Here is the input.
Amino acid sequence: MKKVNIHEAKARLSECLLAVEAGERVVICKRNRPIAELIKATGARTAPRPVGGASGRFTVPASFFAPLPEEFVDGFYPSAYPGGASRASQIAEDGPGTRSRKRRR
Here is the structure.
């Protein structure tokens, strides 16, 4: 382990980094009190993460996919529906039996 004060670390940064690259720890001190430590960075992952690493560790309950109550959803958008209109009255969906908005030529 190598200890250097801030001034020395600034003046000899390249030397400190070479020491770190060689596997040595460099402790940076302020008035001989440690405040930071330089350590070698780990390499970036070269292989992709495996898919399904948490398989079997937890299950998603069916209630997770249930719709949220209207009161809860309306709480996120209190001023989006003026005049007390609810979110449900503002949603328009194309369903069976409704015309498409695009004109066909």
About this structure: The chain has a mean pLDDT of 81.
